[in-house]
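for the writeup, i need someone to sanity check this before i put it in the appendix. the sequnce is what the collaborator sent (i think, or maybe the updated version? ugh). structure was predicted straight from it, no edits. if anything looks off just tell me and ill rerun, i have time this weekend
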Amino acid sequence: MDPHLPEPQPLLALVDALKALPGVGVRTARRMAYHLLQHDPKAAQTLARALEESLTGLQHCERCNGFSETQICVTCANEQRDTSILCVVETPADQNSIESTHNYRGLYYVLMGRIAPLEGMGAEQMNLARLIDRATNGEVQEVILATNFTAEGDTTAHYLGEALRQKGLKVTRIARGVPSGSEIEYVDAGTVAWALLERKET
């Protein structure tokens, strides 16, 4: 940018906000900001309202920790779900990917992250004790660890596997049909379905 043409502070703030999105750098954020402000101000207003409503209207489900409009989410409240199986995922996006396979009828627990010591994220910071309490409620018989096949996802799966087996639970891990280093939300539904069906006991 030309130092003689400084950008207004509100525009800089918008660019910084957009930069927080995954995969969005400064240039992309600036293009988005200019597009919204110059070509589609109505979309900008809609986006602002949607963000505000999401922040004020959503909470974490008391059972699965996923996003919900109510204390208990629709999935957890569904009496047709199999309460004996609990699938542990890193993010709500991963949960949506598994749901899109239409092959899984159990329940979920959403970690909202993964163990990442280099980022200062350990078991205590993630409150994994809450997951263990959920898994040992007397109904759950099998816990499927569907964390991503990344270094952090594998570390998280190993930690949880050890802790849950000590509680007498059957613990399985989704199969490696999901490519190593990839994230579940970006994998096609057929591959995710196969990985679930071919899960292995850890």
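The mean pLDDT is 88. Strands lie at 59-60, 67-68, 82-89, 106-110, 142-145, 170-173, 200-201.
thx in advance!!
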